[in-house]
Amino acid sequence: MEIMRKTTLIILVATLNILFPQSIKAEVVLPAIVSSNMVLQRNTTVVLWGWSDAKEEISIEVSCLKEPINIKADNDGNWRIDVKTSNSKNPQTIKIKSKASNIVLENILFGEVWLCSGQSNMYQPIKGYDGQPTFTPNMTIAKSRNPNLRLFSVDRVGSKIPLKNIEKYTPWQEASPESILNFSAIAYFFGQQLQETLGCPVGMIHTSWGGSLIEAWMSKEALSAYQNINLDGVDISKKSNRIPTTLFNSMINPLVPFKIKGMLWYQGESNRNNPESYKKLFPAMVKDWRSRWGIGDFPFYYVQIAPFIYNGNKEYNSPRNSAFIREAQLECLDLIPNSGIAITMDIGEEYFIHPPKKKEVADRLLYNALNQTYNFKTVDYAAPIYESSVLKDSGMVIKFKNAETGLYTHDVLEGFEIAGADKVFYPADAKILNRKDVFVKSASVPNPVAVRYAWSNWVVGTLFDTNLLPASSFRTDTWEDATQAKK
């Protein structure tokens, strides 16, 4: 009889659960990015959010606040609150309670939070790729243990629709020999040096995918202004990184609205054959991301792609010459408010699209952040940029912006070409004039009209300012039918 009564009770409970499912209390669910060990942007108002039962009453206690915050989820079970942070360097605790949940988030720090995205050069980890190293890995790993530097990685997943939460990820971790090994080298070097310089906690969020097109990182709303988006019937199980909107949906959208200080971006190799399109899409992507975060024009610092042989240096005036995409990226400085660029003309590798000098790239991004974001005004961040040219002594004098303390070359200036009205470019001699200009001349061009510098896929930059920031490749013309003299 006892067994029969227990069986009857179980059946009754199961039946009630089916008939009245609202009586079952679901636990509160947090987004992956909100967890123990995270860094919250300091001295501001941040957002905490999640999901629960509809109209669930939730109590949130933050250790730095005197009183708990009581909220109620909306009709769809969504909830979010604003929390004020401070400059405190003490570890914080957040407790989230409901009828079915008692969540405790521990070891949380207030500091500076940066989001890093792009393709394989941003993805490249401290350990490097097979046969393609990241320089100085051993000492970097040995010295990496730092409880004030926290790392979070989004794994490579695509989606046809915007996701609310990240599907795959490596959770927040303190920097250590184990945690940095597979973490983005640029993101790590940037974060490690920023933490050391500011003396406060730093959190680095990494979300990138090798070989990705910029279109994949754009929302449907932003990209639809430039092309039709219809993923019905599209198989995204392969090459999600090449399909429009799929990476935004799964690797960016779930991170909104986690408060950040700024973003780092290294992408462009996959779009190099369409520089004019890139010049439209890139600023549109940044504008859309900033709108979604809703925290104004936060700093956006990016890397100009490095020289690489690609298909050789044969197609001089074709978009397949990556000098054109480098030019487009440079021009985006004027199209993206509160932005900065890291020029890499001197640290490319002829036969490796993944240059090993990732710390140098991170350094140049950091200089932008220190000067423009953190007010270290004596830190030089701006590389020389072509400004104007004038004729002189059968040659041309090239003037530059951002050369306040002059120009420099390690040895001899190379990579300059000069052309007359026939639009045929000849190799030219170049020298620094008055320590701040460059004089370019060739006996083959007695009446010069235009100058180009480093205008090819593979080249080693030779022109710097006195803080060793390299000048970008540039041209003084806008010709679409220029040629090179036959050698």
TrEMBL record:
Which InterPro entries does the entry mention?
SASA, SGNH_hydro_sf, SIAE
Q: Which residues form the Sialate O-acetylesterase domain?
A: 112-342
Arranged from A to Z, the UniProt key words for this protein are: Hydrolase
Q: What's this protein's name?
A: Sialate O-acetylesterase
Organism (species) = Algibacter aquimarinus
